[in-house]
Amino acid sequence: MPAQTPSQTVGPYFAYALTPEPYGYPGIASNRLVDIGTPGERILLRGRVLDGAGEPVEDALLEIWQADASGRYPTEAPGEARGFRGFGRCGTDAEGRFSFETVKPGRVPGPDGKLQAPHIAVIVTARGLLNHLVTRIYFADEVAANASDPILALVPEDRRATLIARREDHPGGPVYRFDIHLQGEQETVFFDV
Question: Of 26, 114, 147, 151, which has the fewest beta carbons less than 10 angstroms from its beta carbon?
Fold first, then answer.
Protein backbone atom coordinates (compact mmCIF):
# COMPACT_ATOMS: atom_id res chain seq x y z
CA MET A 1 0.00 0.00 0.00
CA PRO A 2 1.42 3.45 -0.93
CA ALA A 3 2.32 5.91 1.80
CA GLN A 4 0.27 9.00 2.53
CA THR A 5 0.78 11.88 0.12
CA PRO A 6 2.90 14.61 1.76
CA SER A 7 1.36 17.96 2.64
CA GLN A 8 1.58 20.66 0.00
CA THR A 9 1.59 24.40 0.36
CA VAL A 10 -0.80 26.53 -1.63
CA GLY A 11 0.78 27.03 -5.04
CA PRO A 12 0.78 30.05 -7.32
CA TYR A 13 -2.09 28.56 -9.34
CA PHE A 14 -4.87 29.36 -6.87
CA ALA A 15 -5.27 33.01 -7.89
CA TYR A 16 -6.72 32.08 -11.28
CA ALA A 17 -9.69 30.37 -9.65
CA LEU A 18 -10.19 32.56 -6.57
CA THR A 19 -9.38 36.00 -7.98
CA PRO A 20 -10.17 35.68 -11.68
CA GLU A 21 -10.75 39.41 -12.37
CA PRO A 22 -7.13 40.13 -13.44
CA TYR A 23 -7.53 37.31 -15.97
CA GLY A 24 -10.67 38.85 -17.45
CA TYR A 25 -13.26 36.63 -15.75
CA PRO A 26 -15.91 37.55 -13.19
CA GLY A 27 -15.47 36.27 -9.64
CA ILE A 28 -18.00 35.27 -7.02
CA ALA A 29 -16.65 37.84 -4.54
CA SER A 30 -14.76 41.09 -4.91
CA ASN A 31 -13.09 43.72 -2.78
CA ARG A 32 -16.21 45.87 -2.91
CA LEU A 33 -18.67 44.91 -0.17
CA VAL A 34 -21.06 47.86 -0.63
CA ASP A 35 -23.22 49.59 -3.21
CA ILE A 36 -23.99 53.30 -3.50
CA GLY A 37 -27.04 53.13 -1.19
CA THR A 38 -25.52 50.99 1.56
CA PRO A 39 -26.09 52.69 4.94
CA GLY A 40 -23.14 53.46 7.23
CA GLU A 41 -19.81 55.22 7.15
CA ARG A 42 -18.08 54.21 3.94
CA ILE A 43 -14.44 53.34 4.44
CA LEU A 44 -11.53 52.12 2.39
CA LEU A 45 -9.38 49.47 4.05
CA ARG A 46 -5.87 49.40 2.61
CA GLY A 47 -2.71 47.60 3.52
CA ARG A 48 0.06 45.27 2.52
CA VAL A 49 0.96 41.67 3.21
CA LEU A 50 4.64 41.37 4.13
CA ASP A 51 6.89 38.38 4.82
CA GLY A 52 9.32 38.01 7.72
CA ALA A 53 11.97 40.10 5.95
CA GLY A 54 9.48 42.93 5.29
CA GLU A 55 9.23 42.05 1.60
CA PRO A 56 5.84 42.17 -0.14
CA VAL A 57 3.91 38.95 -0.67
CA GLU A 58 2.67 39.44 -4.21
CA ASP A 59 0.24 36.56 -4.47
CA ALA A 60 -1.57 36.41 -1.13
CA LEU A 61 -5.35 36.14 -0.99
CA LEU A 62 -7.38 37.91 1.68
CA GLU A 63 -10.99 37.16 2.53
CA ILE A 64 -12.90 39.32 4.95
CA TRP A 65 -16.20 38.84 6.77
CA GLN A 66 -17.90 41.60 8.73
CA ALA A 67 -21.14 42.98 10.12
CA ASP A 68 -22.85 46.01 8.62
CA ALA A 69 -22.93 49.44 10.27
CA SER A 70 -25.80 48.29 12.53
CA GLY A 71 -23.89 45.26 13.77
CA ARG A 72 -25.79 42.67 11.72
CA TYR A 73 -24.39 40.06 9.38
CA PRO A 74 -26.18 39.65 6.02
CA THR A 75 -27.37 36.20 7.07
CA GLU A 76 -29.11 37.70 10.12
CA ALA A 77 -31.12 40.29 8.23
CA PRO A 78 -31.70 39.04 4.69
CA GLY A 79 -33.28 41.68 2.52
CA GLU A 80 -32.36 44.49 4.91
CA ALA A 81 -28.70 44.74 3.96
CA ARG A 82 -29.37 47.09 1.00
CA GLY A 83 -26.29 46.39 -1.07
CA PHE A 84 -24.10 45.12 1.75
CA ARG A 85 -22.49 41.74 1.09
CA GLY A 86 -20.49 41.23 4.31
CA PHE A 87 -17.92 39.07 2.52
CA GLY A 88 -15.09 40.17 0.26
CA ARG A 89 -12.04 38.75 -1.45
CA CYS A 90 -8.91 40.45 -2.76
CA GLY A 91 -5.56 39.27 -4.06
CA THR A 92 -2.40 41.25 -3.42
CA ASP A 93 -0.49 42.99 -6.20
CA ALA A 94 3.26 43.02 -6.93
CA GLU A 95 3.82 45.34 -3.93
CA GLY A 96 1.75 43.15 -1.60
CA ARG A 97 -1.07 45.73 -1.56
CA PHE A 98 -4.76 45.02 -1.02
CA SER A 99 -7.85 47.19 -0.56
CA PHE A 100 -11.50 46.74 0.35
CA GLU A 101 -14.35 49.21 -0.10
CA THR A 102 -16.86 48.69 2.71
CA VAL A 103 -18.62 50.33 5.66
CA LYS A 104 -17.27 50.56 9.17
CA PRO A 105 -18.90 47.65 11.03
CA GLY A 106 -21.07 48.05 14.10
CA ARG A 107 -20.63 46.18 17.37
CA VAL A 108 -21.80 42.56 17.51
CA PRO A 109 -22.47 40.35 20.51
CA GLY A 110 -19.89 37.72 21.37
CA PRO A 111 -20.60 34.14 22.44
CA ASP A 112 -21.22 35.34 26.00
CA GLY A 113 -23.61 38.10 24.83
CA LYS A 114 -21.18 40.94 25.61
CA LEU A 115 -20.66 43.42 22.80
CA GLN A 116 -17.44 43.11 20.83
CA ALA A 117 -15.64 46.12 19.40
CA PRO A 118 -16.23 46.84 15.70
CA HIS A 119 -13.95 44.49 13.81
CA ILE A 120 -13.40 42.68 10.53
CA ALA A 121 -12.45 39.00 10.43
CA VAL A 122 -9.64 38.19 7.97
CA ILE A 123 -8.35 34.97 6.42
CA VAL A 124 -4.96 35.06 4.69
CA THR A 125 -3.89 32.38 2.22
CA ALA A 126 -0.54 32.50 0.45
CA ARG A 127 2.08 30.38 -1.23
CA GLY A 128 4.23 28.74 1.43
CA LEU A 129 1.45 28.39 4.01
CA LEU A 130 0.19 24.92 4.83
CA ASN A 131 -2.91 26.40 6.46
CA HIS A 132 -4.65 29.71 6.10
CA LEU A 133 -4.15 32.33 8.81
CA VAL A 134 -6.99 33.98 10.71
CA THR A 135 -6.84 37.40 12.30
CA ARG A 136 -9.02 40.42 13.06
CA ILE A 137 -8.85 44.09 12.23
CA TYR A 138 -9.90 46.55 14.93
CA PHE A 139 -10.12 50.33 14.54
CA ALA A 140 -7.81 52.81 16.31
CA ASP A 141 -10.64 55.33 16.80
CA GLU A 142 -12.73 52.82 18.81
CA VAL A 143 -10.65 53.14 21.99
CA ALA A 144 -13.42 52.46 24.54
CA ALA A 145 -14.92 49.57 22.57
CA ASN A 146 -11.46 48.03 22.00
CA ALA A 147 -10.71 48.26 25.75
CA SER A 148 -13.79 46.15 26.55
CA ASP A 149 -13.55 43.66 23.67
CA PRO A 150 -13.36 40.09 25.07
CA ILE A 151 -11.33 38.71 22.13
CA LEU A 152 -8.82 41.57 22.04
CA ALA A 153 -8.40 41.15 25.80
CA LEU A 154 -7.02 37.63 25.16
CA VAL A 155 -4.10 39.12 23.20
CA PRO A 156 -1.07 40.22 25.25
CA GLU A 157 -1.17 44.00 25.58
CA ASP A 158 2.19 44.52 23.85
CA ARG A 159 0.90 42.63 20.76
CA ARG A 160 -2.53 44.26 20.38
CA ALA A 161 -1.21 47.03 18.13
CA THR A 162 -0.71 44.41 15.38
CA LEU A 163 -4.52 44.14 15.16
CA ILE A 164 -5.32 47.88 15.02
CA ALA A 165 -5.97 49.75 11.75
CA ARG A 166 -4.96 53.42 11.75
CA ARG A 167 -7.41 55.98 10.41
CA GLU A 168 -6.30 58.51 7.79
CA ASP A 169 -8.77 61.17 6.71
CA HIS A 170 -8.76 61.88 2.97
CA PRO A 171 -10.99 64.10 0.80
CA GLY A 172 -12.74 60.98 -0.57
CA GLY A 173 -13.44 59.62 2.93
CA PRO A 174 -11.66 57.72 5.67
CA VAL A 175 -8.96 55.21 4.86
CA TYR A 176 -7.89 52.65 7.43
CA ARG A 177 -4.33 51.33 7.05
CA PHE A 178 -3.60 47.78 8.17
CA ASP A 179 -0.49 45.84 7.22
CA ILE A 180 -0.25 42.10 7.78
CA HIS A 181 3.18 40.80 8.76
CA LEU A 182 3.40 37.02 8.35
CA GLN A 183 6.54 36.70 10.53
CA GLY A 184 9.18 38.77 12.26
CA GLU A 185 9.22 41.36 15.03
CA GLN A 186 6.00 42.99 13.86
CA GLU A 187 4.19 39.69 13.20
CA THR A 188 0.44 40.11 13.19
CA VAL A 189 -1.40 38.15 15.86
CA PHE A 190 -3.11 35.14 14.28
CA PHE A 191 -5.81 33.09 15.98
CA ASP A 192 -6.27 29.33 16.22
CA VAL A 193 -9.66 28.28 14.90
Answer: 26
